[in-house]
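Sequence design from tokenized structure. All designs in this work follow the same two-part layout: the structure record, then the generated sequence. An example of the structure record is given first.
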């Protein structure tokens, strides 16, 4: 079976009733026949049938060994960091998601040190590997400038230098419809399912998929000990959202490519556009790595303005009608966001600029609307400058 078919049919009908929609097992506990004798479920923090269906689904999508569902993307990130011990070190991409940056800094006081480096150049990361490095943390494409790192090359080479290293990929920006990090040599994949997987901006959820039983047992123990599990109703919403993943990603990537091409043409016409960031454009710095490891180029596009001020960017983001001004991404409605004053507000200016997030940078998350309407909307807004 092809991927789209497998996705739909890996969500099994309920064996008890034949219900084609996954039942929501809204229960905290399960009746036992005699102490310890039960149907595989004893307490919902440990196990829940609705959660299990979601976990099996993402395991198939990411081609992993097993998965765990958490109450948010950051709860999943936190569980993975807890695999480490005092004095262990992490190499992480410098453009990392802001919430993960904050969390890794929090772990400093517990003695887990993270080095933030530019992983788009694979040699940077390889030259930093020592026996103390226990984990490599990648995101590709990154937020919001869409830098690409070569997952396969970095995984293979770093494991040759230190075979115990755990390679983690936060695959939120791509979703499994675009790339499968475990197939490229990673050990753990994380998703903020809040974004593309659930896909309708109506739920917070986090998922971890691992490559082997050892990592699964350790993470299952951490999850059961800390309790940040996804509720049955949120599991159901995520399962429901996932069913249209391929349709949405295809349309969102198409819309993103069209918008990026429109902006690139505007740039050449010498209008207000300065830079356009989209991995699907030939002039994107890492276009060829993206082409090698991704099936689509994704639904996010960023651009900056010639007049690089916060005021200028604000004029654009408040004027669009279809692109709604909001944080987050990956939903069916197109969103527009101004990273310097929104998602990256608390990033020190120096670090923000070093990451290429200029004052005027604007990020678009493409939804599933008609592309002509979206281009018209953005054009009208840019014409105000
Ligand atoms: C949103 C996001 C997260 C955090 O997920 P939440 O569900 O908001 O907790 C982690 N990583 C990336 C790349 C994200 O975009």
């Amino acid at each position: 079976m092809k991927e789209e078919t497998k996705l739909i049919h890996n969500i099994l009908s309920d064996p008890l009733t034949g219900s084609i929609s996954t039942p929501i097992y809204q229960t905290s506990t399960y009746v036992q026949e005699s102490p310890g004798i039960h149907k595989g479920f004893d307490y919902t923090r440990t196990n829940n049938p609705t959660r299990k269906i979601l976990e099996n689904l993402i395991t198939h999508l990411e081609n992993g060994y097993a998965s765990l569902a958490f109450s948010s993307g950051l709860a999943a990130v936190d569980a993975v960091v807890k695999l480490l011990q005092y004095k262990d070190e992490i190499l992480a991409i410098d453009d990392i998601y802001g919430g993960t940056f904050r969390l890794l800094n929090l772990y400093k006081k517990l003695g887990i040190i993270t080095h933030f480096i530019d992983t788009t150049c694979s040699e940077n990361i390889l030259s930093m590997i020592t026996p103390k490095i226990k984990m490599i943390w990648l995101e590709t494409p990154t937020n919001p400038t869409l830098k690409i790192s070569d997952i396969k090359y970095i995984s293979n080479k770093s494991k040759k230098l230190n075979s115990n290293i755990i390679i983690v990929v936060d695959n939120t920006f791509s979703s499994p419809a675009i790339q499968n990090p475990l197939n490229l040599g990673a050990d753990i994949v994380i998703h903020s399912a809040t974004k593309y997987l659930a896909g309708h901006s109506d739920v917070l959820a986090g998922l971890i998929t691992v490559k082997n039983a050892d990592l699964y047992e350790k993470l299952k123990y951490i999850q059961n000990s800390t309790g940040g599990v996804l509720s049955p109703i949120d599991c159901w919403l995520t399962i429901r959202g996932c069913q249209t993943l391929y349709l949405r990603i295809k349309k969102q990537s198409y819309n993103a490519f069209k918008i990026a091409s429109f902006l690139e043409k505007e740039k050449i016409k010498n209008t207000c556009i300065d830079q356009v960031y989209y991995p699907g454009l030939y002039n994107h710095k890492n276009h060829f790595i993206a082409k090698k490891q991704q099936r689509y180029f994704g639904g996010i596009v960023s651009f900056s303005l010639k007049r690089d001020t916060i005021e200028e960017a604000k004029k654009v983001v408040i004027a669009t009608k279809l692109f709604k001004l909001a944080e987050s991404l990956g939903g069916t409605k197109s969103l527009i966001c101004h990273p310097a004053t929104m998602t990256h507000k608390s990033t020190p200016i120096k670090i923000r600029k070093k990451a290429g997030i200029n004052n005027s940078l604007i990020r678009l998350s493409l939804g599933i609307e008609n592309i002509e309407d979206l281009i018209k909307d953005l054009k009208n807004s840019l014409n105000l400058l």
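The pocket of pyridoxal-5'-phosphate is lined by residues 72-74, 97, 99-100, 139, 143, 170, 172-173, 192, 194-195, 204, 206 (CB under 6 Å). We note this feature because it recurs in several other targets discussed in the main text.
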